[in-house]
Amino acid sequence: MSVATRKKISIFDWINYGLLSLISLICLAPFLYVFSVSFTDPDVYIPLQFNLFPQKWSLSAYSYILSTGSFINALKSTTFITVVGTALNLIVSFSMAYALTKKAMPGRNAMMGFIIFTLVFNAGIVPSYLLVKQLGLLNSYWALIWPVLTSAWSLIIIKSFLESMPSELEDAAKIDGCSDIGVFLRIVIPLSMPAIATFTLFFAVSHWNTYFNAVIYLSDSKKWTLQVLVKSLVIDSDNAGMAGASGDEKSIPQETIRMASIVLAMLPILVVYPFLQKHFAKGVMLGSVKG
User: Fold this and answer.
1) Is residue 245 very low, low, confident or very high in pLDDT (cuts 50, 70, 90)?
2) pTM attached to this predicted model
3) What is the Cα–Cα distance from 16 to 268, expressed in whole angstroms?
4) How far is CA 224 from CA 66, 77, 118, 168, 188, in A?
5) Are 264 and 287 found together in one domain?
6) Does 101 share its domain with 127?
7) What confidence tens digit (pLDDT) does each residue in 56-112 have?
8) Concatenated DSSP letters for the chain?
9) Are residues 68 and 25 in the same domain?
10) What is the pLDDT of residues 201-236, one digit of tens each?
């Protein structure tokens, strides 16, 4: 490769990096604005003024939000739904996908047909609501967990990942006296950690951001999820949803309260994601290639 070619590639790389950096900064600006407003002292806050960094730092908005009974209830509800829902998602998805990898399982092809069918056709909102109602799950956290225990997309990806494992490992374990459950727990699960980490992130983010189903199935405001509470703060004109606060909330601008609630709602995912990022791409790619 000539010097001129290396120079052209170098110039292209600099231009490429510069454009990507500019796009990244443009995407990052709204997040910086939200953080800035949430940490701005109420005494110096000026409405509709764009600042990427607070003129004067303050935790007043966070202290107010964390002192409200509504936010604490919403945090407990979302945490319960996320932890329990993610655990059940992993158990059901991986165990069902593992069973579908066995060609000797009766009705395997028919079950796969039903699973693929749901990728194309959906019953809709009204039948789903009627089903949840008939099961007696209305105004219950389980209405946000049981209907979404797994999905066709998750099953197909996990099934493909499990099929990529060497069958000789299972055969050797069975020769040593392992049962099917023993093979699943001692061989398959330890080797599936990249996929488990990936789908843990998928399921956890999905449950943490639950909004639409919570609006439909939860009529009691004490059981609202964080996303529903944040919507009531950002969209509604008052802070009626933030009942039970201590102190004088009138001295705190509503805009700083809204921004602080947004930060608190997305903070857990931002904290957890870096620890699972190294497994993210690996888990998805392993599930997409067999061999």
Assistant:
1) low
2) 0.79
3) 32
4) 16, 7, 29, 49, 38
5) yes
6) yes
7) 888 888 888 888 788 888 989 999 999 999 999 999 999 999 999 888 888 888 988
8) --HHHHHHHHHHHHHHHHHHHHHHHHHHHHHHHHHHHHTB-TTT--TT---SS-SSB--HHHHHHHT-HHHHHHHHHHHHHHHHHHHHHHHHHHHHHHHHT-TTSTTHHHHHHHHHHHHH----HHHHHHHHHHTT-TTSGGGGTGGGS--HHHHHHHHHHHHTS-HHHHHHHHHTT--HHHHIIIIIHHHTHHHHHHHHHHHHHHHHT--HHHHHH---GGG--HHHHHHHHHHSSS-TT-TT--S-GGGS-HHHHHHHHHHHHHHHHHHHHHHHHHHHHHHHHHHH---
9) no
10) 889 989 998 899 999 999 888 888 988 888 887 776
The owner of tokens 């599930």 is 287
Q: Are residues 159 and 145 in the same domain?
A: yes
- 8 and 109 assigned to the same domain: no
CA-nearest of 195, 189, 220 to 287 is: 195
As for how many domains the chain has, the answer is: 2
Where among 37, 58, 79 does a domain terminate? Answer: 58
The residue range of the domain holding 82 is: 59-291
